[in-house]
Amino acid sequence: MLWTSQELNAALNLRQTSCSEIGIQGVSIDSRTLSRGDLFIALDGISGKSLQHNIVKARDGHKFISAAESNGAAAVICSKKIECKIPSFLVNDTLDALWDLAKFARDRMNGEVLAITGSAGKTTSRAWLEQLLRAQGSAHASVASYNNHWGVPLSLSRMPADADYGIFEVGMNHRGEIAPLSMLIRPQVALVLNVLPAHIGHLGTLNAIRREKLDISKGLVSGGTLLLPFDLDQTGLAKDLNILTFGLSDDADISGKIIERNDPWLLEVKVNQERFEFSIQSGGEHLAKTALATLAAVYALGGNLHTAVKDIDKLGLPSGRGNLLNVSGRCIIDDSYNANVVSMQCAIDNLGRNPGGKKIALLGEMKEVGDHGPPMHHDVLMSCEKLDAVITVGRGFYDSREILGTRLLQHAESSGDIDLDSLVAYTEPGDTILVKGSNAIFWRHQFVDSLVSAMKNSRT
Known about the structure:
Number of helices: 15
Number of strands: 21
CATH architecture of the largest domain: 3-Layer(aba) Sandwich
Helix content: 25-40%
Largest sheet: 9 strands, mixed
CATH class of the largest domain: Alpha Beta
Number of domains: 3
Strand content: 15-25%
Structural class: alpha/beta
CATH superfamily of the largest domain: Mur-like, catalytic domain
Shape: globular
């Protein structure tokens, strides 16, 4: 049982409700994915006191209460009087109510909690941490990319009171979003994976992104630890913060070293003069750094590092974050979930290292880069010199023919305009195809699924 009626009343500051004692098994804001026994929260309208700025929801969750009831919801939180057969909790604002549940859930949990942010790699590190820590205790974590104003409180509200570990992603695309989420999580450890020019179109400068990422420190509990990349500028941080650094440098508190760049990659991590060797199944320096940061987080949380380094080589990648798919003798690198200029260049560099076969990249334009877009897209194209062929998608790559010449197979306005038959015919067993771009280009349209189907249906 995740929530009782008594706990819900206490969390929502309600003196009484019309319902008798109930047992809530989970929390949901989507009637389509709701499980039997879930509490359904009907989000609607404009956010209330929880956020510094208003956010208008596209749909009114009250319209889906009957669907939630049909799908087995045990109770509902709503801000309008409704008629339904399941118990209801009437509040002034349902998003505020979700945040109230999150605060209550955090208060009743006595385990170790980590908040993680960064421009790239958050979901991979969170997934790896969850799996590593589950071998050492009970762990609860965000799912998918639930890292915004509703995803973070929803993930917290689902956290069992007796969890040993809680791991939560914190994302942003505008200034002022990370601090309130971190203060809601109140982590013992706050991890900044990296600071890259993602969402620079909204924040303006890399330094503004850095300041926003460092705001994750504002939610740290007393005595908590801030984990930072060794080379990250710490200007503006409180002087009394407990800071640990990680990185591919001997001067980092948790230092790493790449020993072999093969498949798997062999790495070393050093903590307090003790050295551990480990391997990761998927290569690329960006993933090596993510693995190092993940192990640093295990250490900062008080986990068993000896066990973690033995387990990390068994871990896979979340979907769309560099997964390797073998289809009809070809290897597809599905890195389609999102992109920024640094992660694009890392993925292209890693593709260029592949031995044998043609190296082909499908590159989608980068979103939310503003005036920085033209030079960033130009830099990405200039990184493709070791590739055999490239397909570009979106206006950001409008001049790709000028830079790539005959290596450009096609420039398309959208992923749906890519000539899959010609692409498949161009490839042969032993080739490697990278799919990388902003979320709206490939991931949202399930492009990799279409590419896989086209390859399976091909006779070659």
